[in-house]
Amino acid sequence: MHYRILTINHISPRGLERLPPERFDVAAAHAEPHAFLVRSADLHRIVIPDSLLAVGRCGAGVNNIPVAALSQRGVPVFNAPGANANAVKELVLAALLIAARNICQAWAYARSLTGDDQALEAAVEEGKKAFIGFELPGRTLGVVGLGAIGVEVANAALALGMKVLGYDPQITVRRAWQLSANVEQALSLEDLFTRSDAVTVHVPLDEHTRSLVNDARLKLMRQGGVILNFARAAIIDDQAVIRALDAGRLMAYVCDFPAVGLKDHPKIVTLPHLGASTGEAEENCAVMVAETLKDFLENGNLRNCVNFPESVLPRVPNTTRLAIANRNVPNMVGQISTCLAAAGLNIADLLNKSRAEYAYTLIDADGTVSAGLIGRIAKIEGVLAARIV
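^ thats the sequence. predicted structure below, dont judge the formating
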């Protein structure tokens, strides 16, 4: 089968190279695409075609994608966890230094000076005391969220001589192995804020993390604290941060999300969403998602999927593969197997995985699966999507 891939944003050519033209027609315009490749475009505003089989997000966050609606149609959404982690980590470290040394304010002051060199020298000596900062060794950084980015930030902060507290009750085994043993576990968010000189957030935006940094938690921080946000804007209560800055409890707020109420505040530095804006990160994300999408379309495998379970099954030679997305309800595999048995088909291999309310099944069947049979399977109550791969 020849798959049509619609690129909604500019996607790095390094990623598109992983989709060979003999199998994939990649273009910025398709009437009935089988897959979307997207970076930051808002898919909530786009009509989703019936032909769509998958969405590949060349980045980590998926707030710009209608994941719930796609899940109900059996459409997997893939992202690129960790592909931009180094880029974001480096920007977080830069932001920490910007805040600690008042670099942006000091630069603005230096640019405002007028007169000859002698006048500038005098003004510099007089004005520099307004920008006294602090050094990082011995200070404590609180890292909320220990995924790919949070782990890299925590380990890098240790290398700079900081003490590091981490909080993530859902940390994976893989990330735990990557995290330095010198990162101390915070018992709660309140514990982390109480003991931190600076706090950086690296969590997705959902109902649990919206306004995670708020008045109550900011009041727990040490005097002269710093808040860093290179995750999602709404994780921080902007007005709470402004109140803490104006009251002198916070020293600085550095974020990647300019807003009218933030961008001109003298103690706030806003950057134009630069977190993953490096050539390397764009290439890494595009390559990872393109390879994931290719494996799904050609083999039905799910890797780095945000709405269906990780499902990878090596193909049995000389069989027909079926890929079925369904609700996580009893007897689903039994009903599918009954359909195959009624058609006289033996199952050579089968994988069934579930994740919350959804499940995914891969079957390698001996013989040919007809369009009529896949149609009968698709009509089983609870089946969201079924196809022959």
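Residues 279-299 form the longest helix (21 residues).
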